[in-house]
């Protein structure tokens, strides 16, 4: 199980909490790896601290994309590309640094009940309207539909490796949406 956690460069305390709680596998029989997806930032001190953190833990995957709410789709796509290029995994969990994950229960479920392929699961959102104003606004040019395609909300999306591969193919032809959860739908 590979766990990709979206994190902001300045959220070092959250990453540390994850590393010392659910983010590290302490049992040899249950194996997972947790890495953090980080974007670029103009704050040189935060970037310096992040570089030191990465030297210490070696679990930060950094992107040239600027940190920002509407660049999350780029960060996720970068994480998927990194995972497909450098990791061997059967399943991936895409999560955020403000979410608690129980990898033990997840691995037990995957071992006993989960299909080995075509797995895409999480909190399913159906008939979610495309908002045209406010923080989550999506322009007509970006998406002309009234409703998003069904998608799982981003607190935790569990996928088999073949689904991640399909997303990578999709990313090559579909421009990112501002709303990263819907982009993963």
Written overview of the protein:
- This protein is an alpha/beta fold and 185 residues long.
- The protein has a single domain (2-120, 154-176), classed as Spore Coat Polysaccharide Biosynthesis Protein SpsA, Chain A (Alpha-Beta Complex), CATH 3.90.550.
- Helices cover 35% and strands 20% of the residues.
- It has helices at 12-19, 44-57, 72-86, 103-112, 161-173, 180-183; strands at residues 2-6, 33-40, 60-66, 91-96, 120-121, 124-125, 151-152, 156-160.
- The strands form two sheets. A six-stranded mixed beta sheet has the order 3-2-1-4-8-5, with helices on both faces.
- Helix 3 crosses helix 5.
- The longest helix has 15 residues, at 72-86.
- The mean pLDDT is 90.
């Amino acid at each position: 199980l590979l766990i990709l956690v979206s994190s902001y460069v300045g959220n070092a305390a959250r990453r540390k909490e994850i590393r010392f709680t659910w983010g590290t596998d302490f049992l040899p029989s249950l194996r997972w790896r947790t890495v953090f997806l980080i974007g670029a930032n103009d704050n040189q001190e935060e970037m310096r601290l992040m570089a030191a953190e990465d030297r210490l833990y070696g679990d930060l995957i950094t992107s040239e994309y600027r940190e920002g709410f509407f660049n999350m789709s780029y960060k996720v796509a970068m994480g998927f590309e990194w995972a497909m290029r450098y990791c061997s995994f059967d399943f991936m969990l895409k999560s955020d640094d403000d979410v608690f994950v129980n990898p033990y229960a997840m691995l037990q479920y995957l071992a006993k009940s989960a299909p080995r392929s075509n797995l895409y699961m999480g909190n399913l959102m159906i008939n979610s309207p495309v908002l045209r104003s406010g923080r989550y606004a999506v322009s007509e040019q970006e998406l002309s539909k009234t409703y998003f395609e069904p998608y799982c909300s981003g607190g935790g999306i569990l996928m088999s490796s073949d689904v991640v591969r399909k997303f990578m193919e999709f990313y090559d032809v579909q421009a990112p949406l501002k709303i990263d959860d819907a982009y993963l739908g």
